[in-house]
Structures are given as structure tokens and as C-alpha cells.
Design goal:
single chain; six-stranded parallel beta sheet; alpha/beta; 14% strand; 223 residues; 7 helices; TIM Barrel
């Protein structure tokens, strides 16, 4: 997808990694892709040093990797770890060696989703239902973008999730300005209001208000 407010437009670093603390690394308006990607044996050699208990498959969109099934199988066999996929939900990879999935739902209204991502929301809705009926642990998250994805839209997303299963955990996240647009950072009060509103429909709702410690350890929530 081509989300207009994606953090990947601002820099090449994963903000969820502890060493990449927000504001501590130089960013660029034109985030370049790496010159080459690591081969699987190179990835495994680096992970051998860490002996991971959890591996998070993220980036821009890990589900698009044609070797996703082989990669997750290698992680399971070598480390016995939990494999956690962060995805926009537009494509659904083979899940045989995936333990948990978090689907980031950008919007649920078709026109808004089409404008923001340049893709239809319908495949995401259908894949979300498939995830819910699979063996993986499923969570969902949305970014509250003032002036675009407002609280009313977050509420509509929650209603969709509740129609699938009201016990699916849902996380409301703040927006950090990125890309060429005028949307401001989400305030903690807006996140709190959204959490209160969508708790009418879902049993397990929480929100990250943009505090650094929450951002750094937010990744732990899905397992």
C-alpha cells in the first residue's frame, strides 16, 4: 500500500527497536531502500548470536516476501521462538509457522481507505476474518490521525472488529507527522477518548499515548 502518512517516508529506521530511540537518529525526507537484502543464512547467522525467544516480522510489509513461509519455518526449527507478524492485512501469507498476527487497519470506510492507501479495504476485511478463524493469536491496531482518521472512524473500525469477535484485542495508536501533509501529532487526550469510545464494542482495548517508553515496548503487546 502507499499510505500518505507512513513513517517509512521519514527514515529508514524501525522506531520500535530500543537502539533506534525516537529523535536520536538522523532521518531523511527520502528514505532509501537498502542496496541489497540479506540472504536467509546471513539472517540466521546474526540471530544465532541473540538466540531469540520472539521474532517480529515487520518492515514495510513482511507478508509480501515470497520466502515468508521458509523464513518463519527456519526460525521455528532453529530457535523454537514465537513468530509475530505485523501486517496491513492486504495479503495473507502461509501461516503454518506464524504464532501471532497484528493487523494494522488504516480505515474501514472504503473511500477514506482508498484515498489514504491507494488500495481497497475489502481484501483486508476478508483476510482479517480469515485470521480470526485461524490458529494464530490475532490483534488489531489503528492510528488515530487528527484531521483524517478521526475518532468516529476508529469507532467504525471497532464495530467491524466486534462483528468478527469482540474479544480481539485492539490498540489505538498516535500519529507522528510523516510525509508531505499537514496532519499534527495525536494528543494523549484524543487517544484516551478513542479508547473510551471503542470500549463500548470491544472487551480488550488499550491506547499508546505517545510516551517514549510505551513506543519502545509496544511491540510486546501481541504475545
Amino acid at each position: 500500500m502507499s499510505c500518505h502518512g507512513c513513517l517509512c517516508k521519514e527514515g529508514i529506521y524501525d522506531h520500535l527497536l530500543k537502539e533506534n530511540r525516537l529523535g536520536n537518529l538522523p532521518q531523511t525526507e527520502n528514505a532509501f531502500k537498502p542496496r541489497r537484502l540479506l540472504e536467509l543464512d546471513e539472517v540466521l547467522a546474526r540471530l544465532d548470536e541473540l538466540k531469540p525467544q520472539k521474532v517480529f516480522l515487520t518492515g514495510e510489509e513482511a507478508s509480501l516476501d515470497p520466502n515468508y513461509a521458509a523464513i518463519t519455518r527456519a526460525f521455528h526449527e532453529r530457535y523454537g521462538c514465537k513468530n509475530v507478524l505485523y501486517t496491513n492485512g492486504f495479503k495473507m501469507p502461509a501461516l503454518g509457522d506464524t504464532d501471532a498476527v497484528e493487523v494494522g487497519i488504516k480505515a474501514i470506510s472504503e473511500e477514506l481507505h482508498q484515498w489514504y492507501t491507494e488500495r481497497s479495504v475489502e481484501p483486508i476485511k476478508q483476510n482479517f476474518i480469515r485470521y480470526a478463524h485461524s490458529e494464530v493469536k490475532l490483534t488489531a491496531a489503528s492510528i488515530l490521525i487528527p484531521g483524517l482518521v478521526e475518532i468516529d472512524e476508529i469507532e467504525r473500525i471497532a464495530q467491524f472488529i466486534a462483528g468478527v469477535n469482540p474479544d480481539i484485542p485492539y490498540f489505538v495508536l498516535p500519529y507522528f507527522p510523516a510525509g508531505n501533509n499537514s496532519w499534527r501529532k495525536t494528543s494523549p487526550y484524543e487517544v484516551a477518548e478513542a479508547v473510551e469510545r471503542v470500549s463500548r464494542y470491544l472487551t480488550n482495548v488499550s491506547g499508546c499515548q505517545g510516551v517514549e517508553q510505551e513506543i519502545l515496548h509496544e511491540v510486546e503487546r501481541v504475545v
